[in-house]
Amino acid sequence: MTEKATMQALARLVPEGSRVLDLGCGDGSMLDYLQRERGCSGYGIEIADANVLACVRRGVNVIQLNLDEGLAMFGDASFDVVLQIDTLQHLRNAEVMLRETARVGRTGIVAFPNFAHWPNRLSVLRGRMPVTRRLPYQWYDTPNIRVGTYKDFEALAQKNRLRILDSFGLQEGEAVRFLPNARAGTAVFHFERSA
Amino acid sequence: MSFIATPQSMHFPEALPLQSGASIRDYHLAFETYGQLNADRSNAVLVCHALNASHHVAGRYEGQDKSEGWWDNMIGPGKSVDTNRFFVIGVNNLGSCFGSTGPMHKHPDTGEVYGADFPVVTVEDWVNAQARLLDRLGITQLAAVLGGSLGGMQALSWTLQYPERMRHAVVVASAPNLTAENIAFNEVARRAIVTDPDFHGGHFYRHGVIPKRGLRIARMIGHITYLSDDVMNEKFGRQLREGLDLKYSTQDVEFQIESYLRYQGDKFSDYFDANTYLLITRALDYFDPARAFGGNLTQALARATAKFLLVSFTTDWRFSPQRSREIVKALLDNRRDVSYAEIDAPHGHDAFLLDDARYMSVMSSYFDSIAKEQA
Lengths: 195, 375
What we know:
By secondary structure, chain A is of the alpha/beta class. Chain A has helices spanning 4-11, 29-38, 49-58, 94-104, 118-125, 150-159, 180-183; strands at 19-23, 41-46, 62-64, 79-85, 105-113, 162-171, 174-176, 186-193. In chain A, strands 3-2-1-4-5-8-6-7 form an 8-stranded mixed beta sheet, with helices on both faces.
Protein backbone atom coordinates (compact mmCIF):
# COMPACT_ATOMS: atom_id res chain seq x y z
CA MET A 1 0.00 0.00 0.00
CA THR A 2 2.80 2.39 -0.84
CA GLU A 3 0.80 3.92 -3.68
CA LYS A 4 1.01 7.64 -3.40
CA ALA A 5 -2.72 8.34 -3.30
CA THR A 6 -3.24 5.91 -0.43
CA MET A 7 -0.31 7.37 1.46
CA GLN A 8 -1.66 10.87 0.94
CA ALA A 9 -5.14 9.83 2.06
CA LEU A 10 -3.71 8.47 5.30
CA ALA A 11 -1.33 11.41 5.73
CA ARG A 12 -4.30 13.79 5.64
CA LEU A 13 -5.44 12.28 8.94
CA VAL A 14 -2.18 13.34 10.59
CA PRO A 15 -2.29 16.95 11.83
CA GLU A 16 0.55 19.18 10.63
CA GLY A 17 3.55 19.26 12.95
CA SER A 18 2.52 16.08 14.77
CA ARG A 19 4.93 13.92 16.65
CA VAL A 20 4.44 10.53 15.03
CA LEU A 21 5.34 6.94 15.90
CA ASP A 22 5.01 4.63 12.90
CA LEU A 23 4.73 0.99 13.98
CA GLY A 24 6.07 -1.27 11.25
CA CYS A 25 7.25 1.71 9.23
CA GLY A 26 8.63 -0.34 6.33
CA ASP A 27 11.12 1.61 4.24
CA GLY A 28 10.18 4.85 6.02
CA SER A 29 8.40 6.41 3.04
CA MET A 30 5.33 7.44 5.08
CA LEU A 31 7.41 9.15 7.79
CA ASP A 32 9.58 10.74 5.15
CA TYR A 33 6.44 12.10 3.46
CA LEU A 34 4.99 13.34 6.77
CA GLN A 35 8.27 15.06 7.63
CA ARG A 36 8.63 16.74 4.26
CA GLU A 37 5.00 17.57 3.47
CA ARG A 38 3.40 18.04 6.86
CA GLY A 39 6.27 19.17 9.10
CA CYS A 40 5.94 16.14 11.35
CA SER A 41 8.69 14.52 13.39
CA GLY A 42 9.04 11.12 14.98
CA TYR A 43 10.28 7.58 14.73
CA GLY A 44 9.59 4.42 12.86
CA ILE A 45 9.70 0.97 14.41
CA GLU A 46 10.88 -1.90 12.24
CA ILE A 47 12.13 -5.42 12.72
CA ALA A 48 13.42 -6.18 9.21
CA ASP A 49 17.09 -5.35 8.59
CA ALA A 50 16.48 -4.21 5.01
CA ASN A 51 13.78 -1.76 6.12
CA VAL A 52 15.91 -0.40 8.97
CA LEU A 53 18.63 0.22 6.43
CA ALA A 54 16.23 1.92 4.01
CA CYS A 55 15.08 4.27 6.80
CA VAL A 56 18.64 5.16 7.81
CA ARG A 57 19.39 5.83 4.16
CA ARG A 58 16.42 8.23 3.94
CA GLY A 59 17.40 9.97 7.14
CA VAL A 60 14.25 8.79 8.93
CA ASN A 61 14.65 7.93 12.63
CA VAL A 62 14.14 4.20 13.01
CA ILE A 63 14.29 1.93 16.05
CA GLN A 64 14.85 -1.75 15.38
CA LEU A 65 12.41 -3.60 17.63
CA ASN A 66 10.12 -6.59 17.56
CA LEU A 67 6.62 -5.20 18.11
CA ASP A 68 5.56 -8.48 19.66
CA GLU A 69 7.80 -7.47 22.59
CA GLY A 70 5.55 -4.46 23.20
CA LEU A 71 6.17 -0.73 23.42
CA ALA A 72 7.65 -0.58 26.92
CA MET A 73 10.22 1.90 25.64
CA PHE A 74 7.54 4.51 25.02
CA GLY A 75 5.73 6.59 27.63
CA ASP A 76 1.97 7.15 27.87
CA ALA A 77 0.61 9.69 25.39
CA SER A 78 4.15 10.47 24.25
CA PHE A 79 3.09 10.84 20.60
CA ASP A 80 0.37 12.86 18.90
CA VAL A 81 -0.27 10.07 16.43
CA VAL A 82 0.67 6.38 16.38
CA LEU A 83 0.38 4.76 12.97
CA GLN A 84 -0.21 1.08 12.30
CA ILE A 85 -0.32 0.89 8.55
CA ASP A 86 -0.47 -2.65 7.22
CA THR A 87 1.09 -3.81 10.47
CA LEU A 88 -1.79 -5.44 12.31
CA GLN A 89 -1.85 -8.49 10.06
CA HIS A 90 1.76 -9.29 10.98
CA LEU A 91 1.40 -9.13 14.76
CA ARG A 92 1.02 -12.14 16.98
CA ASN A 93 -1.28 -10.27 19.35
CA ALA A 94 -2.98 -7.45 17.51
CA GLU A 95 -5.23 -6.59 20.46
CA VAL A 96 -2.29 -5.98 22.82
CA MET A 97 -0.67 -3.76 20.21
CA LEU A 98 -3.93 -1.90 19.68
CA ARG A 99 -4.07 -1.13 23.39
CA GLU A 100 -0.41 -0.11 23.31
CA THR A 101 -1.12 2.15 20.34
CA ALA A 102 -3.90 3.85 22.28
CA ARG A 103 -1.68 4.16 25.36
CA VAL A 104 1.36 5.67 23.61
CA GLY A 105 -0.51 7.87 21.14
CA ARG A 106 -3.02 10.59 21.80
CA THR A 107 -4.63 9.26 18.64
CA GLY A 108 -4.07 6.14 16.59
CA ILE A 109 -4.49 5.40 12.91
CA VAL A 110 -4.85 1.80 11.83
CA ALA A 111 -5.07 0.65 8.22
CA PHE A 112 -5.17 -2.95 7.06
CA PRO A 113 -6.48 -5.09 4.19
CA ASN A 114 -10.22 -5.56 4.54
CA PHE A 115 -10.99 -9.23 4.04
CA ALA A 116 -14.69 -8.50 3.57
CA HIS A 117 -14.03 -6.60 0.35
CA TRP A 118 -16.41 -8.13 -2.21
CA PRO A 119 -13.79 -9.77 -4.48
CA ASN A 120 -12.45 -11.60 -1.41
CA ARG A 121 -15.98 -12.73 -0.51
CA LEU A 122 -16.55 -13.98 -4.02
CA SER A 123 -13.35 -15.93 -3.93
CA VAL A 124 -14.23 -17.57 -0.64
CA LEU A 125 -17.76 -18.31 -1.98
CA ARG A 126 -16.04 -20.14 -4.81
CA GLY A 127 -14.21 -22.07 -2.13
CA ARG A 128 -10.78 -20.52 -2.51
CA MET A 129 -8.76 -17.99 -0.51
CA PRO A 130 -8.38 -14.76 -2.48
CA VAL A 131 -5.20 -13.74 -4.23
CA THR A 132 -5.55 -10.07 -5.17
CA ARG A 133 -3.43 -6.94 -5.60
CA ARG A 134 -4.18 -6.06 -1.97
CA LEU A 135 -3.74 -9.61 -0.66
CA PRO A 136 -1.24 -10.95 -3.17
CA TYR A 137 -0.15 -14.07 -1.31
CA GLN A 138 -1.13 -17.70 -1.56
CA TRP A 139 -2.74 -18.94 1.65
CA TYR A 140 0.18 -21.32 2.25
CA ASP A 141 2.89 -18.73 1.70
CA THR A 142 2.04 -15.38 3.24
CA PRO A 143 3.62 -12.99 5.74
CA ASN A 144 0.15 -12.19 7.07
CA ILE A 145 -0.65 -14.20 10.16
CA ARG A 146 -4.29 -13.13 10.16
CA VAL A 147 -6.93 -11.48 8.06
CA GLY A 148 -9.80 -9.41 9.40
CA THR A 149 -12.59 -7.20 8.22
CA TYR A 150 -13.65 -3.62 8.62
CA LYS A 151 -16.53 -4.77 10.84
CA ASP A 152 -14.23 -7.02 12.88
CA PHE A 153 -12.10 -4.02 13.74
CA GLU A 154 -15.14 -1.97 14.73
CA ALA A 155 -16.00 -4.69 17.22
CA LEU A 156 -12.44 -4.91 18.54
CA ALA A 157 -12.28 -1.14 18.93
CA GLN A 158 -15.54 -1.16 20.84
CA LYS A 159 -14.35 -3.99 23.08
CA ASN A 160 -11.25 -1.95 23.92
CA ARG A 161 -13.32 1.21 24.47
CA LEU A 162 -11.63 3.16 21.72
CA ARG A 163 -13.45 6.22 20.51
CA ILE A 164 -13.57 6.17 16.70
CA LEU A 165 -12.90 9.68 15.42
CA ASP A 166 -13.30 8.64 11.81
CA SER A 167 -13.36 5.46 9.82
CA PHE A 168 -13.71 4.69 6.15
CA GLY A 169 -12.56 2.37 3.44
CA LEU A 170 -9.89 3.10 0.88
CA GLN A 171 -10.08 1.86 -2.67
CA GLU A 172 -7.62 3.01 -5.34
CA GLY A 173 -6.59 5.80 -2.98
CA GLU A 174 -10.19 7.11 -2.74
CA ALA A 175 -12.20 7.18 0.48
CA VAL A 176 -15.18 4.80 0.50
CA ARG A 177 -17.78 5.88 3.03
CA PHE A 178 -20.80 3.96 1.73
CA LEU A 179 -20.72 0.25 2.67
CA PRO A 180 -16.95 0.30 3.21
CA ASN A 181 -16.93 -3.26 4.57
CA ALA A 182 -17.96 -4.59 1.17
CA ARG A 183 -16.64 -1.91 -1.14
CA ALA A 184 -13.08 -1.19 0.03
CA GLY A 185 -9.88 -3.21 -0.05
CA THR A 186 -8.42 -1.27 2.87
CA ALA A 187 -10.02 -0.43 6.22
CA VAL A 188 -8.94 2.79 7.96
CA PHE A 189 -9.68 3.74 11.57
CA HIS A 190 -8.71 6.94 13.34
CA PHE A 191 -9.33 6.67 17.07
CA GLU A 192 -8.44 7.77 20.55
CA ARG A 193 -8.78 6.31 24.00
CA SER A 194 -12.11 7.00 25.67
CA ALA A 195 -11.63 9.38 28.57
CA MET B 1 45.84 -2.93 0.55
CA SER B 2 45.19 -0.04 2.81
CA PHE B 3 46.52 3.51 2.63
CA ILE B 4 49.58 4.71 4.57
CA ALA B 5 48.89 6.26 7.96
CA THR B 6 51.32 8.51 9.80
CA PRO B 7 51.20 8.83 13.59
CA GLN B 8 51.59 12.31 15.03
CA SER B 9 52.02 13.67 18.52
CA MET B 10 50.87 16.92 20.14
CA HIS B 11 52.41 18.34 23.32
CA PHE B 12 50.18 20.05 25.89
CA PRO B 13 52.20 22.01 28.44
CA GLU B 14 49.22 23.47 30.32
CA ALA B 15 47.60 21.42 33.12
CA LEU B 16 44.46 19.46 32.35
CA PRO B 17 42.22 19.37 35.42
CA LEU B 18 40.93 15.86 36.05
CA GLN B 19 37.64 14.72 37.50
CA SER B 20 39.43 13.34 40.57
CA GLY B 21 40.67 16.81 41.51
CA ALA B 22 44.20 16.00 40.36
CA SER B 23 45.62 17.36 37.15
CA ILE B 24 48.18 16.40 34.57
CA ARG B 25 50.47 18.73 32.66
CA ASP B 26 53.20 18.47 30.08
CA TYR B 27 51.54 15.54 28.42
CA HIS B 28 51.49 14.25 24.87
CA LEU B 29 48.61 12.89 22.82
CA ALA B 30 49.36 10.52 19.97
CA PHE B 31 46.92 10.88 17.10
CA GLU B 32 46.39 10.18 13.41
CA THR B 33 44.26 11.88 10.82
CA TYR B 34 42.92 10.57 7.51
CA GLY B 35 41.33 12.51 4.69
CA GLN B 36 41.14 16.27 4.24
CA LEU B 37 39.54 18.85 6.47
CA ASN B 38 37.16 20.81 4.23
CA ALA B 39 37.20 24.59 3.81
CA ASP B 40 34.56 25.30 6.47
CA ARG B 41 36.08 22.68 8.79
CA SER B 42 32.78 20.86 9.12
CA ASN B 43 33.66 17.32 8.04
CA ALA B 44 35.71 16.11 11.00
CA VAL B 45 34.87 12.76 12.62
CA LEU B 46 36.48 11.81 15.92
CA VAL B 47 36.96 8.09 16.54
CA CYS B 48 37.30 7.03 20.19
CA HIS B 49 39.00 3.78 21.08
CA ALA B 50 38.12 1.03 23.53
CA LEU B 51 40.28 -0.83 26.03
CA ASN B 52 43.22 -2.13 24.03
CA ALA B 53 43.14 -0.02 20.90
CA SER B 54 44.82 3.22 19.94
CA HIS B 55 44.94 6.25 17.67
CA HIS B 56 45.89 3.89 14.85
CA VAL B 57 42.34 3.45 13.62
CA ALA B 58 42.84 2.91 9.91
CA GLY B 59 45.46 2.56 7.22
CA ARG B 60 48.79 0.81 7.70
CA TYR B 61 52.28 1.96 8.50
CA GLU B 62 54.84 2.41 5.78
CA GLY B 63 56.89 -0.73 5.23
CA GLN B 64 54.94 -2.72 7.83
CA ASP B 65 52.75 -5.52 6.58
CA LYS B 66 49.73 -6.41 8.67
CA SER B 67 49.83 -3.07 10.48
CA GLU B 68 46.25 -2.12 9.57
CA GLY B 69 44.44 0.03 12.11
CA TRP B 70 41.85 -1.57 14.39
CA TRP B 71 38.88 -0.19 12.47
CA ASP B 72 40.44 -0.35 9.01
CA ASN B 73 37.44 -2.34 7.76
CA MET B 74 35.17 0.60 8.65
CA ILE B 75 37.26 3.65 7.86
CA GLY B 76 39.18 4.60 4.73
CA PRO B 77 38.70 5.74 1.14
CA GLY B 78 35.35 4.40 -0.13
CA LYS B 79 34.59 2.62 3.16
CA SER B 80 31.63 3.11 5.51
CA VAL B 81 33.28 6.16 7.03
CA ASP B 82 34.64 7.45 3.77
CA THR B 83 37.88 9.41 4.16
CA ASN B 84 37.29 10.90 0.72
CA ARG B 85 34.46 12.83 2.38
CA PHE B 86 35.38 12.97 6.06
CA PHE B 87 38.42 14.13 7.95
CA VAL B 88 38.85 11.34 10.49
CA ILE B 89 40.82 11.77 13.72
CA GLY B 90 41.99 8.92 15.96
CA VAL B 91 43.41 9.83 19.38
CA ASN B 92 45.21 7.65 21.89
CA ASN B 93 43.81 8.36 25.34
CA LEU B 94 45.77 9.57 28.33
CA GLY B 95 47.01 6.68 30.42
CA SER B 96 47.14 4.33 27.46
CA CYS B 97 50.32 2.69 26.25
CA PHE B 98 50.49 3.46 22.56
CA GLY B 99 52.19 6.83 22.48
CA SER B 100 50.12 9.23 24.56
CA THR B 101 51.40 10.04 28.03
CA GLY B 102 50.83 7.09 30.31
CA PRO B 103 52.09 5.35 33.42
CA MET B 104 55.30 4.26 31.68
CA HIS B 105 56.35 7.90 31.16
CA LYS B 106 58.08 10.32 33.50
CA HIS B 107 56.29 12.70 35.82
CA PRO B 108 57.38 16.22 34.78
CA ASP B 109 58.03 17.29 38.41
CA THR B 110 59.93 14.34 39.77
CA GLY B 111 61.49 12.94 36.63
CA GLU B 112 60.39 9.54 37.91
CA VAL B 113 58.31 7.14 35.89
CA TYR B 114 54.65 7.55 36.94
CA GLY B 115 53.89 3.86 37.42
CA ALA B 116 51.11 3.50 39.96
CA ASP B 117 51.21 7.28 40.55
CA PHE B 118 49.64 8.06 37.20
CA PRO B 119 46.42 9.88 38.04
CA VAL B 120 43.13 8.01 37.68
CA VAL B 121 41.55 9.25 34.46
CA THR B 122 37.88 9.04 33.51
CA VAL B 123 35.92 8.98 30.28
CA GLU B 124 35.09 12.64 30.93
CA ASP B 125 38.79 13.47 31.31
CA TRP B 126 39.57 11.77 28.02
CA VAL B 127 36.84 13.73 26.30
CA ASN B 128 38.26 16.99 27.70
CA ALA B 129 41.71 16.02 26.44
CA GLN B 130 40.28 15.18 23.02
CA ALA B 131 38.50 18.55 22.91
CA ARG B 132 41.80 20.31 23.58
CA LEU B 133 43.39 18.44 20.70
CA LEU B 134 40.55 19.59 18.45
CA ASP B 135 41.12 23.18 19.59
CA ARG B 136 44.70 22.88 18.46
CA LEU B 137 43.63 21.36 15.14
CA GLY B 138 41.25 24.29 14.64
CA ILE B 139 38.08 22.22 14.72
CA THR B 140 35.23 23.86 16.59
CA GLN B 141 32.47 21.43 15.61
CA LEU B 142 32.64 17.75 14.70
CA ALA B 143 30.39 16.18 12.11
CA ALA B 144 30.36 13.10 14.33
CA VAL B 145 31.95 11.33 17.25
CA LEU B 146 32.15 7.59 16.71
CA GLY B 147 33.11 4.82 19.09
CA GLY B 148 32.47 1.21 20.05
CA SER B 149 32.31 -0.26 23.55
CA LEU B 150 34.32 2.09 25.84
CA GLY B 151 34.73 4.26 22.74
CA GLY B 152 30.94 4.49 22.55
CA MET B 153 30.91 5.73 26.14
CA GLN B 154 33.24 8.54 25.07
CA ALA B 155 30.95 9.39 22.15
CA LEU B 156 28.00 9.49 24.55
CA SER B 157 29.95 11.61 27.01
CA TRP B 158 30.86 14.03 24.22
CA THR B 159 27.16 14.73 23.64
CA LEU B 160 26.86 15.77 27.31
CA GLN B 161 30.15 17.60 27.78
CA TYR B 162 30.31 19.43 24.45
CA PRO B 163 26.82 19.29 22.91
CA GLU B 164 27.51 22.37 20.78
CA ARG B 165 30.71 20.93 19.35
CA MET B 166 29.15 17.97 17.51
CA ARG B 167 26.26 17.11 15.24
CA HIS B 168 26.12 13.32 15.42
CA ALA B 169 27.01 10.60 17.90
CA VAL B 170 27.50 7.05 16.68
CA VAL B 171 27.54 4.71 19.66
CA VAL B 172 28.25 1.05 18.88
CA ALA B 173 28.04 -1.93 21.27
CA SER B 174 28.11 0.33 24.27
CA ALA B 175 26.25 0.99 27.51
CA PRO B 176 25.22 3.90 29.76
CA ASN B 177 27.31 2.30 32.54
CA LEU B 178 28.71 -1.11 33.47
CA THR B 179 26.60 -3.70 35.25
CA ALA B 180 27.85 -5.33 38.45
CA GLU B 181 28.80 -8.43 36.45
CA ASN B 182 30.87 -6.28 34.11
CA ILE B 183 32.68 -4.55 36.97
CA ALA B 184 33.25 -8.01 38.44
CA PHE B 185 35.02 -9.17 35.28
CA ASN B 186 37.20 -6.08 35.40
CA GLU B 187 38.02 -6.73 39.02
CA VAL B 188 39.13 -10.31 38.31
CA ALA B 189 41.44 -8.97 35.61
CA ARG B 190 42.83 -6.31 37.92
CA ARG B 191 43.41 -8.80 40.74
CA ALA B 192 45.31 -11.03 38.33
CA ILE B 193 47.65 -8.12 37.54
CA VAL B 194 47.98 -6.66 41.02
CA THR B 195 48.75 -10.02 42.64
CA ASP B 196 51.45 -10.88 40.12
CA PRO B 197 54.74 -10.80 42.11
CA ASP B 198 56.27 -8.84 39.24
CA PHE B 199 53.75 -6.01 39.65
CA HIS B 200 55.58 -4.35 42.56
CA GLY B 201 52.64 -2.15 43.48
CA GLY B 202 52.64 -0.72 39.96
CA HIS B 203 56.30 0.32 40.02
CA PHE B 204 57.58 -2.70 38.12
CA TYR B 205 59.45 -0.53 35.61
CA ARG B 206 62.05 0.26 38.32
CA HIS B 207 62.63 -3.42 38.80
CA GLY B 208 63.08 -4.11 35.12
CA VAL B 209 60.25 -6.67 35.09
CA ILE B 210 56.75 -6.89 33.61
CA PRO B 211 53.81 -8.57 35.38
CA LYS B 212 53.14 -10.74 32.37
CA ARG B 213 51.38 -13.53 34.24
CA GLY B 214 48.76 -11.11 35.49
CA LEU B 215 48.35 -9.49 32.08
CA ARG B 216 47.91 -12.88 30.43
CA ILE B 217 45.15 -13.91 32.79
CA ALA B 218 43.50 -10.50 32.52
CA ARG B 219 43.45 -10.88 28.77
CA MET B 220 42.18 -14.45 28.92
CA ILE B 221 39.16 -13.54 31.02
CA GLY B 222 38.53 -10.45 28.92
CA HIS B 223 38.72 -12.42 25.73
CA ILE B 224 36.16 -14.97 26.92
CA THR B 225 33.68 -12.20 27.59
CA TYR B 226 34.17 -10.62 24.17
CA LEU B 227 33.09 -13.78 22.37
CA SER B 228 29.82 -15.67 22.41
CA ASP B 229 29.31 -19.23 23.56
CA ASP B 230 28.21 -20.20 20.04
CA VAL B 231 31.23 -18.72 18.32
CA MET B 232 33.60 -20.39 20.77
CA ASN B 233 31.88 -23.71 20.27
CA GLU B 234 31.94 -23.35 16.54
CA LYS B 235 35.58 -22.32 16.46
CA PHE B 236 36.98 -24.68 19.09
CA GLY B 237 34.28 -26.96 20.39
CA ARG B 238 35.83 -29.70 22.49
CA GLN B 239 38.69 -30.21 20.04
CA LEU B 240 41.94 -31.42 21.48
CA ARG B 241 45.21 -29.90 20.43
CA GLU B 242 46.93 -33.15 19.60
CA GLY B 243 45.40 -36.46 18.65
CA LEU B 244 42.20 -37.89 20.05
CA ASP B 245 43.31 -39.14 23.43
CA LEU B 246 43.11 -37.41 26.77
CA LYS B 247 46.46 -37.09 28.49
CA TYR B 248 45.08 -37.29 32.02
CA SER B 249 47.14 -34.24 32.88
CA THR B 250 46.03 -31.29 34.95
CA GLN B 251 48.56 -28.76 33.76
CA ASP B 252 49.12 -29.48 30.08
CA VAL B 253 47.37 -27.54 27.37
CA GLU B 254 44.97 -30.14 26.01
CA PHE B 255 41.93 -28.39 24.57
CA GLN B 256 42.22 -26.05 21.59
CA ILE B 257 40.42 -23.33 23.53
CA GLU B 258 43.11 -23.47 26.22
CA SER B 259 45.79 -23.12 23.61
CA TYR B 260 43.97 -20.21 21.96
CA LEU B 261 43.48 -18.32 25.22
CA ARG B 262 47.10 -18.81 26.22
CA TYR B 263 48.22 -17.56 22.82
CA GLN B 264 46.00 -14.47 23.12
CA GLY B 265 47.29 -13.88 26.66
CA ASP B 266 50.92 -14.18 25.61
CA LYS B 267 50.49 -11.86 22.67
CA PHE B 268 48.73 -9.26 24.82
CA SER B 269 51.30 -9.36 27.61
CA ASP B 270 54.02 -8.54 25.09
CA TYR B 271 52.58 -5.16 24.18
CA PHE B 272 50.12 -3.99 26.81
CA ASP B 273 50.98 -2.08 29.95
CA ALA B 274 49.72 -3.42 33.27
CA ASN B 275 48.99 -0.01 34.80
CA THR B 276 47.16 1.01 31.64
CA TYR B 277 44.93 -2.05 32.03
CA LEU B 278 44.07 -1.00 35.57
CA LEU B 279 43.44 2.61 34.57
CA ILE B 280 41.26 1.85 31.58
CA THR B 281 39.14 -0.78 33.31
CA ARG B 282 38.62 1.68 36.15
CA ALA B 283 37.49 4.35 33.70
CA LEU B 284 34.99 1.80 32.39
CA ASP B 285 33.73 1.05 35.91
CA TYR B 286 33.34 4.74 36.75
CA PHE B 287 31.48 5.85 33.65
CA ASP B 288 27.90 6.56 34.65
CA PRO B 289 26.44 9.85 33.41
CA ALA B 290 23.16 9.14 35.22
CA ARG B 291 24.92 9.01 38.59
CA ALA B 292 24.71 12.77 39.08
CA PHE B 293 20.97 12.54 38.37
CA GLY B 294 20.11 9.89 40.93
CA GLY B 295 20.40 7.19 38.30
CA ASN B 296 17.96 8.90 35.93
CA LEU B 297 19.46 8.50 32.47
CA THR B 298 16.67 10.51 30.83
CA GLN B 299 17.60 13.55 32.90
CA ALA B 300 21.30 12.90 32.30
CA LEU B 301 20.86 12.93 28.53
CA ALA B 302 18.68 16.05 28.48
CA ARG B 303 21.77 18.11 27.62
CA ALA B 304 22.51 16.14 24.48
CA THR B 305 21.50 17.81 21.24
CA ALA B 306 23.31 15.56 18.76
CA LYS B 307 21.56 13.15 16.45
CA PHE B 308 22.28 9.58 17.44
CA LEU B 309 22.85 6.26 15.79
CA LEU B 310 23.10 3.33 18.18
CA VAL B 311 24.08 -0.17 17.11
CA SER B 312 24.15 -3.32 19.22
CA PHE B 313 24.71 -7.00 18.50
CA THR B 314 22.30 -9.72 19.57
CA THR B 315 24.96 -12.08 20.97
CA ASP B 316 26.91 -9.39 22.83
CA TRP B 317 26.46 -10.27 26.48
CA ARG B 318 29.09 -7.90 27.79
CA PHE B 319 27.40 -4.82 26.29
CA SER B 320 24.02 -6.33 25.57
CA PRO B 321 21.33 -4.84 23.31
CA GLN B 322 19.32 -4.12 26.44
CA ARG B 323 21.95 -1.58 27.51
CA SER B 324 21.79 0.20 24.16
CA ARG B 325 18.01 0.26 24.39
CA GLU B 326 18.31 2.07 27.71
CA ILE B 327 20.19 4.84 25.93
CA VAL B 328 17.62 4.82 23.11
CA LYS B 329 14.78 5.12 25.62
CA ALA B 330 16.44 8.04 27.41
CA LEU B 331 16.89 9.79 24.06
CA LEU B 332 13.27 9.10 23.09
CA ASP B 333 12.14 10.57 26.41
CA ASN B 334 14.10 13.69 25.49
CA ARG B 335 12.65 13.71 21.95
CA ARG B 336 16.09 13.51 20.38
CA ASP B 337 16.74 12.23 16.89
CA VAL B 338 17.85 8.63 17.23
CA SER B 339 18.08 5.53 15.12
CA TYR B 340 18.85 2.13 16.54
CA ALA B 341 19.94 -1.02 14.74
CA GLU B 342 20.17 -4.36 16.51
CA ILE B 343 22.41 -6.54 14.37
CA ASP B 344 21.80 -10.27 14.52
CA ALA B 345 25.46 -11.31 14.56
CA PRO B 346 26.97 -14.41 16.19
CA HIS B 347 30.29 -12.91 17.32
CA GLY B 348 29.46 -11.44 20.72
CA HIS B 349 31.00 -8.12 21.74
CA ASP B 350 33.79 -8.55 19.18
CA ALA B 351 31.21 -8.14 16.42
CA PHE B 352 31.68 -4.38 16.52
CA LEU B 353 35.18 -4.83 15.09
CA LEU B 354 34.24 -7.41 12.48
CA ASP B 355 32.77 -7.32 9.01
CA ASP B 356 29.07 -7.93 8.88
CA ALA B 357 27.22 -6.79 5.78
CA ARG B 358 24.18 -5.44 7.67
CA TYR B 359 26.32 -3.62 10.22
CA MET B 360 28.56 -2.07 7.58
CA SER B 361 25.56 -1.02 5.46
CA VAL B 362 23.87 0.72 8.38
CA MET B 363 27.08 2.56 9.20
CA SER B 364 27.75 3.61 5.62
CA SER B 365 24.13 4.72 5.14
CA TYR B 366 24.26 6.82 8.28
CA PHE B 367 27.55 8.45 7.33
CA ASP B 368 26.15 8.99 3.83
CA SER B 369 23.28 10.93 5.32
CA ILE B 370 25.74 12.99 7.41
CA ALA B 371 27.75 13.78 4.27
CA LYS B 372 24.56 14.81 2.44
CA GLU B 373 23.67 17.23 5.23
CA GLN B 374 26.97 19.01 4.64
CA ALA B 375 26.63 19.18 0.90
